[in-house]
Amino acid sequence: MIDTHAHLGKVIFGADPLTPEKLIAFMDTYGIEKSVILPLVNPEEEHYFYTTEQALEDCRSYPDRFIPFVNVDPRRGSNDGNYDFYPLIKEYVDQGCKGFGEILANLPAHDKRLKGIYKACGALGLPVLPDFRYATSTNGVIDQIGMPYLEEVLCEFPQTIIIGHGPSFWAEIAADVPGIQENYPKGKVEKPGRVDYLLEHYPNLWADLSAMSGYNALARDLDYAKRFLEKHYRKLLFGTDYFVGNQEPHIIDLLNNVGLSSSIKQRIFRKNAEELLKL
Ligand SMILES: [Zn+2]
Fold first, then answer.
1. N vs C: which end of the chain shows fewer Cβ within 10 Å?
2. Contacts of 94 (CB under 8 A, 6+ apart)
């Protein structure tokens, strides 16, 4: 398996840092061969930064186990929406980074500064991973119910692959979105939501199934989850969002027991990541 969403380092005040050795022990327990390491560089999220430089260093220590992403705060440079992120991000790509994220900056998804990042990443062939939240959140990339900002981005940057992730993204698995205060809505999916529509209509939208948000979206209605996974399996990525060292990856059991064929499971657990990240 390839975990497309993991973290390392000391990011939470008072918590022990997640060392490479601890993450590898977790990976070995569950049969994960490689993990994508996502830097955290936006000041709204967590208490300490874990920079791209740290990710590159940790990945160099375990090149067979870790895959580095680059992360740059969108307010760097001129902070006016005109900054050219391409040279900065390319320098990290030249050092081995395979994707961009995760973005937790508390800006609207269609903010001009974020668009500068989507543009550079499209030109560099890097997928971009934002953590989507609704407008009331004080961290994470903001969208409205129905994800109009995300759709604007998908239209404007067809070369840029966006990996959907986070509570507001996955709340939209159902058409009936209960409201912006409910991060993990429960109940049957009576009618497919905007996630289904956008995955169907935009080749540049993918999604990762990590964290409580991805798990909850599937676990709330397993019959619908099976249909959803069978419809979109070519653009779905297994992930855990492991970052504090005590999470159980319930998503593994769910994917193994929901009734998928072995070839679909292979795509979600591994092959899609290999192709997307050109491993
Ligand atoms: Zn994460």
1. C
2. none
How many A from CA of 263 to the centre of ligand 1? Answer: 27
How far does the centroid of ligand 1 lie from the alpha carbon of residue 94, in Å? 24
Q: What's the chain's Rg over C-alpha atoms?
A: 17
Q: Cα(175) to centroid of ligand 1, in Å?
A: 25
The residue among 119, 42, 55, 48 whose CA lies nearest residue 88 is 119
- Tell how far the Cα of 78 is from the centroid of ligand 1, in angstroms: 27
In tens, the pLDDT along 211-262 reads 999 999 999 999 999 999 999 999 999 999 998 777 899 999 999 999 999 9
Q: In what side-by-side order are the strands of the sheet with 66-68?
A: 2-6, 34-37, 66-68
Q: Assess if residue 162 is contained within a domain.
A: yes
Query: Ligand 1 centroid to 249 CA: how many Å?
Result: 13
Residue 25 lies in a domain: no
Domain that includes residue 53, residue range: 36-231
Residue 108: closest CA among 139, 82, 141: 141
| Distance from the alpha carbon of residue 206 to the mean position of ligand 1, in angstroms | 16
Q: What is the pTM (predicted TM-score) of this model?
A: 0.97
